Amino acid sequence: TESISAMFTSLKTSAPWKTKLMCVLKKGVLRITMQDFRTQLWLGEVSGHPMEHMPLLISEVLVSVLSNSLNHGGWPRVVSEDIHRQLEQLRSKVVTLRGRAEGRTLLPLPLCVERAQPQDMLPRSVVYRALLYSIETLVIQWSGQIWTVLKRDSSMVLQQGDHPGPSAELHFWACQRGNLLGVHSQVGWSRVRSVCMLVFAQSTFFLLLLQAEDIDLYLRPLRRLISCFEEGSFNKLEMLLPPLFHTLCLIWSRSQYYCRPPRMVLLLQEFCNLLIEKAFAYLIPEELFKMELEEGVERVQMTIGVLRSFKRLFHTHRQRIPQYYRSGETVKQWDFPSTLVFHRADQVLDRLLMIEVCVWHGFLEKVELGGSRGKILSEMVFSMNEEFHDGWRTLRESKYDPLDYTKEDFLVDYRRFMEQNRDFDQRLGTVLNLAFQHSKGLESAFKVTLTLYPNHRPDPLP
């Protein structure tokens, strides 16, 4: 606790604590008195990270106490050996659990192997067979842990249906490199090193370690770009796309192990996910049909422009890949289908184009035409606006997320909306033609155009 006034007692441990705990153990069964409590109690403390101290407590206290024959002189030898074995298993599980909690792989070393002396490894030694059995068990257990590390792949998150950003890829390879280096450094005990080196050789451990170091090194330049993507405003993201693709091309041409189509596809998918995440935050889907008309159209068109720019730059740099290789080097092209990269982005883009059409219809509420027949033409536009007002109100009052391409709610309303106004283009064209005919000059014609088309008019989608 932070102060003595905040100290309290409990028979059970509370929720995770931030500082230290003081534990009190009673030595015997006698009643504790004010005069003798110092000799009748043991005082100890537990830090805020008990998982770090649990293996030490088991090996230095519990094992030492139970391995002393004076403490269990009346026990059968089988019982003593069984208890000792159970403690070894408990310590091994605690060490492994601690590693998982810290996000790394810890290889538990049996105490008998850890404390063995050189003479214990001789075949004539009394403990030789026990040590040999422990080492064989150790190799089996470590092999399983090492294989678990080696078979990890950064694509597992995508395969589970999530949509991680590129930070997940960089984090994975940084952790994988640190994990493999940690495993390699732990196998330093001279008695088991040769056996574990055999395990490593059979599992291509060193090759995968070199791969992780290479990939982590070449992905590091992306950290600054990713930070700018994550922290910057959406309307400034487009200027970051050219340096992003330039960096990706350099990674592809320089890294020995990342120039594989599955890896680049995964990284590009994660950048698409990041752009989509930023786009959703910028658009505010639940308010998209409720915000001011000009602002809604601007946001939708800005998002469409960024996604299209990302796709355009992908195809542009795809053709430039040979320029990033030195003379004489074998060129590896981005020969994977672009649909693998843009599958989700294309679905979002299609949905945005539909929303753009719907939002654009709202401009009819503000159309006012001048000229000799301006009042009549304005009334015609107003009449058209009244006809599809009900469909537009349905969109504005909807509770669903119009950008959620996995659901059909918006599509149902969109199709109904377009069906109600399927002759809209023809009727609007008639009004526009009449407005041009009664324009007094070029300036008046441009005013008509700007009145009806304050923003780019999107083509309706089927």
TrEMBL record:
InterPro entries linked to this entry: DHC (IPR026983), Dynein_heavy_tail (IPR013594)
One of the record's GO molecular function terms: dynein light intermediate chain binding
Top-level taxon: Eukaryota
Cellular component terms per the entry's GO annotation: axonemal dynein complex
Domain Dynein heavy chain tail: 133-449
Pfam families from the UniProt entry: DHC_N1
Biological process annotations from GO: microtubule-based movement
Name of the molecule in the record: Dynein heavy chain tail domain-containing protein
Species annotation: Salmo trutta
